[in-house]
């Protein structure tokens, strides 16, 4: 069963489900999605969801909570949102309406997660996305480095400063074509902090 059909099948058996999507863990690019025809669509916030998951995992690591599946949950009066790690490179996000209790939402989302991790089409979709994303990472890395070196207040020492902030060697920073997607995001956030302006990865064309 392909990923789109799998999500559709899950939706038929999840009471109160509103939206589901599979997205890149780092860029937030949506690999596949499903949603009810009315109401907010969480696929429009893929990059924000990816950042939210990474932030949640930083808190998780700081508290040394490492057992079991690492899940990020958000509850409000209208919607319950859950984020699961599906694959080394992917996340599963799902939202439920307020007719479902937080406990029931968690149980239903976990059942859906269990079926998705067994779906071989997911690995194929993620692999295809990674092939396409590799070129984007290289292009964005070169763009960021060019902007940073042009706008840095200390251009002769900017890479050393960036290396100290990111923990990456200067030799790595000099080769944006070889950056991984996590490195691209780390470098982008560090450049933004140094320059005091937004150089977000989400600005890809």
Brief write-up:
With 205 residues, the chain is an alpha+beta fold. It has helices at 3-11, 46-62, 102-116, 120-151, 158-166, 170-173, 181-195; strands at 17-24, 30-35, 72-75, 79-87, 90-97.
Can you tell me about this structure?
The chain has 205 residues and is of the alpha+beta class. It folds into two domains: 116 residues, Beta-Lactamase (2-Layer Sandwich); 70 residues. The protein has seven helices and five strands, in the order H-E-E-H-E-E-E-H-H-H-H-H. The protein has a five-stranded antiparallel beta sheet, sandwiched between helices. Helix 4 packs parallel to helix 7. The longest helix has 32 residues.
CATH fold group of the largest domain: Beta-Lactamase
The residue ranges in which pLDDT falls below 50 over 5 or more consecutive positions are 200-205
The CATH architecture of the largest domain would be 2-Layer Sandwich
N→C terminal distance = 32 Å
Reported for the largest beta sheet, the result is: 5 strands, antiparallel
Total number of strands = 5
Class based on secondary structure composition and strand pairing = alpha+beta
**Portion of residues within helices:** 40-55%
Question: What is the number of helices?
Answer: 7
Q: Name the overall outline.
A: elongated
Quaternary assembly: single chain
| H and E string | HEEHEEEHHHHH
Mean pLDDT: 78
* Cα radius of gyration in angstroms: 19 Å
Strand content of the residues, in percent? 15-25%
Q: CATH first level of the largest domain: which class? A: Alpha Beta
Give me the CATH superfamily of the largest domain: Dynein light chain 2a, cytoplasmic
